[in-house]
Amino acid sequence: MLAIRLTVEPDRLDAVALPLRPGAADGTSAEPVPTAVALPAGVADEAAALASMAGLTGRVGEVHRQLRPGAAPARLLLVGVGEGDESGWRSAGAALARAGKDETHITVALPAGVSSEAVRGLVEGLLLGSYRYRLGADTEAPALTGVDLAVAEPDAYQQAVQVARTTAEMTRLARDLTNAPSSVKNPQWFAGQVAAAAADLPGLRLRVREPEELAAEGFGGILAVGGGSASGPRLVELDWQPADAGMHVVLVGKGITFDTGGISIKSVPAMKLMRKDMAGAAAVVAATLGAAALRLPVRITTLAPLAENMVSGAAFRPGDIVRHYGGLTSETTNSDAEGRLVLADAMAYAVQELKPDLLIDLATLTGANAVALGTRTGALYSDNDQLAADMLAAVAAAGESAWRMPLPADYVEHLGSELADLHSAPTQGAGSVLAALYLREFTGALREKWLHIDMSAPSWCERDDAELTRGATGWGVRGLLRWLATLC
């Protein structure tokens, strides 16, 4: 990651970034924002003239680069921050990281009286917009390694920078886990990555159940989905329990490390990105690690049921009856609706054994998510109005997007089965809604304390856009960390 430094006396002025905002008069032409630290003589006037001559608007993410041979600074970058709120600075930071990729160092002159929220947004944007994932040699790797933030009182922003750095680091971890090819990413590998990351943070406890333990304890859904693979399933249980915790939250994330669809095999176009089918597990694990790094006083138990959904003679079949943890049974007529089966086991375990105050699950669950809400928005479900509102507010503040969806009572009848307690993948009704209703059946006494987000669509991005980079987005890490911080 980029090295971020707060300073009151910038000493590296090869490349200086100055913020622009829309002009007060017409809202179209840009004007420089007065900065907290003194700039070399004439730079502010030159920036104003450049903004006018170049037709800059000050809109969020707009960047203009000006060479100044023989002068200091030698390069001037004018960056639009819009209204100057956290979201605008986040996008500006990402745009600056891309526009300045050929620089080795940039100094950003921040406005006088800039808010901590704006600084947090800027740092997140810089660190997330500069993210790259490569396994081989990266001949086009950016040269940019460090950014100084010039402010009047560095100490006032240390916490904002630390929170932003931790949030970005954990979002990048979730992106790394999700981007990793399934040629190396199987359940055992994923569990090992969690163990390595948790080892650096005191106060975390980790338990990984292997197939024999899963069978002994009755995790039938995880075993069924993972049964067709040579790489056996796992259940990761990661616990952060600070002494001053006032609430216990269980986070559950779907962890299908590759999804062929099983016997109900996917088409090639639908299968090619199925290395991302564990993005929910990556998000909840990374959020828990982030909470531990920030020492948030809330107990968090994260459950990541991990399996490969493969085709073999040992794969579960359409029409099989699966017995879940706790005894409920599912008739599964579509082996490509596997994620809900592993989530059901983990949720039932959480309800019966962990008895938390709140139960949250994230999953790349259905293609219907994108049909209903497009590619950037998660589908949020809950019977608890306050919980839903709080989560939506946190997700929005973090720069992510979710929309609350209904849990209609008249769809519940579609979950009926002649052979089992539940039909896991009925063909009637809306796919994302029915998947949520199915999961709700495993919430028991926590039905009113449960929230589910189908985040299949926003877990992946086809092009760079603001702080998102092409590939895995790490969706959910930022929103969860914001929300968890409100419980303290």
Biggest pleated sheet: 9 strands, mixed
Report the count of strand segments.
Answer: 21
Distance between the amino and carboxyl termini: 28 Å
User: Into which percentage range does the β-strand content fall?
Assistant: 15-25%
Number of helices: 14
The chain-level mean pLDDT equals: 95
Helix content: 25-40%
Structural class: alpha/beta
Low confidence ranges: none
Morphology: elongated
Rounded Rg: 24 Å
Q: What does the secondary structure layout of this molecule look like, with pairings?
A:
Layout: E1 3-7, E2 15-22, E3 30-32, H1 43-53, E4 63-67, E5 75-80, H2 86-99, E6 105-109, H3 116-129, E7 146-150, H4 158-179, H5 187-198, E8 204-209, H6 211-217, H7 220-226, E9 234-240, E10 248-253, E11 255-259, H8 268-271, H9 279-293, E12 299-309, E13 320-323, E14 329-332, H10 339-354, E15 358-363, H11 368-373, E16 378-382, H12 385-397, E17 402-404, E18 422-423, H13 431-440, E19 450-454, E20 460-461, E21 471-472, H14 477-486
Parallel strand pairs: 1-7, 2-5, 2-6, 6-7, 10-12, 10-15, 11-12, 14-18, 15-19, 16-17
Antiparallel strand pairs: 2-3, 4-5, 8-9, 9-12, 13-14, 16-19, 20-21
Structure description:
With 488 residues, the protein is α/β, with parallel strands linked by helices. Helices cover 33% and strands 22% of the residues. It is built from 14 helices and 21 strands. The strands form 4 sheets. Strands 8, 9, 10, 11, 12, 15, 16, 17 and 19 form a 9-stranded mixed beta sheet that branches. Strands 1, 2, 3, 4, 5, 6 and 7 form a 7-stranded mixed beta sheet that branches. Strands 13-14-18 form a 3-stranded mixed beta sheet, with helices on one face. α2 (86-99) runs parallel beside α3 and α12 packs across α14.
